[in-house]
Amino acid sequence: MAGFILVELYQSASERAFDAQLDVYVKSILAEMVPDPAAGEDAPVREPKGVGEPRFSLPLSGWYWTVAEAVNGEKVQFASLSLVGDPLDVAPLGSAENRSSFGTGPGNEEVRVRQQRIGLGSAEYIITVAAETAGFRADVRDFANQVILTLVVFGAGLVGAVFLQVRVGLRPLVRLRASLGEVRRGEADEIDENLPVELAPLAVELNALIHSNREIVERSRTHVGNLAHGLKTPLSVISNEARTASGPFADKVAEQATIMSTQIQHHLERARMAAQRRVIGVSCEVEPVLSRLTRAMSKIYRERDVELADAMPDGLRFRGEQQDLEELAGNLLDNACKWASSKVVVHVRQLQQGEATRELFELIVEDDGPGLSQEERREAVKRGRRLDETVPGTGLGLSIVADLAGLYGGRLELDRAEIGGLRARLILPSV
């Protein structure tokens, strides 16, 4: 748009300059036509001879002039030698005093036409001067090319300057983002505060928020530990006293104390997990945890074949504490080993972007045991629900896994395994 406006302005200025030059020749022709004062008032107008431009005398030179009577159908009275008797194709002036326009010369070339109505004595004449526009058009084209080239160079320079300004100007923001990402992945304890004065206060406030969050979590853990110690000791005393006594009352007390202990353990575990879930910037590698757990389960359950089926994705990290990942994976592996006939298979896979709106990975533990029906799978995740009393345990394993996965924004899914038993699919956030 800017280039178009510049070219239009230049063309308008060039046309005005061209018309001013043609006006000079109009005045020269008029001066040549003025009758000789010595011949009296009725002396006829003179034929212009010396207009001051040699090209008016060269045949078909592109420069022409004519003098026509205004009241006689604009009949040509005098004409330049360059016309060699050919007409000059221009529109009649009519009642206008003067006009500038474009026309066609004898050689079919485009000409710029300047017409002027004048009165000499009792007669009116129309002086027409025309000049070819080839040079004028060439000047406009050259100017347009220069404008285009200049604007292209200027635009490229402007784009480059904006690009450099954005790259250099936003570099501190990139550093802040990278530093925040390191904190989120657990690679750093706080954000780098070595930033420009505009961003340094933001980094300071974020670090204060991170430290405050950690202090709150530590206080929560301390309170949970104190509560656990304060409740477990009296319950242990009650349970011991009940076991030393006999009778229905003692049995009922022992039963209720056991239920209370299970409930306290469950809710304290949930409180501890909720406190840990809110820690900012905590993460751990998945491969060392699973490798250690599979080796441990292979030793504990020697008759079971526990294997890590798939190669671990490089650099896969769990967005949470290592202790929680050990508890999640450990409960699933322990449950699978208890029920498996001979084999437990562990799969780990990073979920693709199309499968999740954020970074997630899945941990699948399969066994070749008896498995569970659909109704039993729903019951298995309820806290304290044991489907088989002959197998040791509290019944909290799968419920703890489901609760802890939910606190991390993940989930636990139970289904039928391809190798015949139970398939536990755990989805957790990754870094």
TrEMBL record:
Domain HAMP: 167-218
Keyword vocabulary terms for this entry: Kinase, Membrane, Phosphoprotein, Transferase, Transmembrane, Transmembrane helix, Two-component regulatory system
Class of this enzyme: transferase
UniProt-listed PROSITE patterns: HAMP (PS50885), HIS_KIN (PS50109)
Enzyme Commission identifier(s): 2.7.13.3
Major localization class: membrane
GO MF terms held by the record: kinase activity
Database matches in InterPro entries: HAMP_dom (IPR003660), HATPase_C_sf (IPR036890), HATPase_dom (IPR003594), His_kinase_dom (IPR005467), HisK_dim/P_sf (IPR036097), Sig_transdc_His_kin-like_C (IPR004358), TCS_sensor_his_kinase (IPR050428)
Residue span(s) of domain Histidine kinase: 226-431
Transmembrane segments: 147-170
Protein origin, superkingdom: Bacteria
Compartments where found: Membrane
Protein name per Swiss-Prot or TrEMBL: histidine kinase
Source organism per UniProt: Roseibium polysiphoniae
